[in-house]
Write a structure and sequence with these properties.
Layout: H1 2-21, H2 26-33, H3 37-40, H4 42-61, H5 67-87, H6 91-118, H7 125-150, H8 155-176, H9 189-193, H10 199-219, H11 222-225, H12 227-230, H13 234-262, H14 264-285, H15 289-316, H16 322-355, H17 357-374, H18 390-393
Helix pairs in contact: 1-6, 1-7, 1-8, 4-6, 4-16, 5-6, 5-8, 6-7, 6-16, 7-8, 7-13, 7-15, 10-15, 10-16, 10-17, 13-14, 13-15, 14-15, 14-17, 15-16, 16-17
Amino acid sequence: MRLRLLLLALGTFAIGTDAMVTAGILGLVAHDLDVSVSAAGQMVTVFALSYALLAPVLATATARWPRRRLLLTALALFTAGNLLSALAPTFALLLATRVLAAAGAALYSPTASAVATSLVPAEQRGRALATVLGGMTVATALGVPLGTYLGRSDWRLTMWLVVALGTVAFAGLAALLREPPATGGAPGLRERLAPLRDRRVVWAAATTFAFFLTFNSVYIYLATAVHRATGGDASRLSLVMLVTGLASVAGSWTGGRAVDRFGVRTVLLSGSAATVVCFALLPWLGRTMPGALAYAVATPLAGWAVAVALPHRMASLAPASAPLLLSLNSSALYLGMAAAGGAGSLFITLLGERAFPWASAVLALATVGLAAVTTRSATGNEGGAYAPSTAERQTRTA
């Protein structure tokens, strides 16, 4: 069982590197393709928005596919999209290739998360999700700093790194992943969206959206926020990204265990509150390397603990319909990332390159309030709110 979870995490490692490494190469992309840094940041917006919109549609279209075949197809699409990104001669074509890469990610990530929760008992779901999300966090620890360093002279080398990672992930899953047990009939798009009739599902999705909007409005432009500390030096920025990644791994690992021990609400509120403080202090911390490194430790340590708690909260609303709920959570996550690209650009325009994290601190404070209000009746793992139909109960892992 542990091996199967690690294989699923291997795929999220490749996808996580692609989704997050953009933060380290925006300046190079902007210079090479003659656009502004804010415009280059829309690479993240296009990828994330495409993911959010395509995830439920593609999940419905492929619901009857064998899970192994679906995961391999998803990684093939993802890798092909990044191959075309590495070859794109113009910014417009580069954005188009991000749609293809996002389609592969949209197919893979919810399926991997849903399969992970089906492999373990209810009391271990937090740890299972933490393992699969661990692929994303290890990507921030290894893939992002390595990609930033490789791309210090040519951002296309970073995209070739992602192609290589996607290829390795595909080969590993093809060789070692066995087909999960067959499932029942597949729900249609209407059934997949049915949970949105429950207010608690809507609030959970809204919290996920708000948190990732807040968190990524700073992360996408982290190179700008710590520019005074790094002096524009790629090696220094790579160090900041490496520390960020290592802290993300620690945050995900501790977050999974904290959720299982203390409950979703405690982790959501404490982690989100910590990010408020971090964003508020970043304009001062970003002046020096010690300050930037302190931020790089504290923020992802808290943020990735929350990132584990959010899907656990959603899945706990109706464990029998966890695949449907996790798909909605993923869409909310990537909608938040999509909005963050534009929000961060707007904050920079309005407040400047030094002070823009203050806007994210305000948003983070609002997110704490949202989480507090919408989980006040929960004592840990929420449950029982969404009542799935008979058809949905028969399609638990569709």
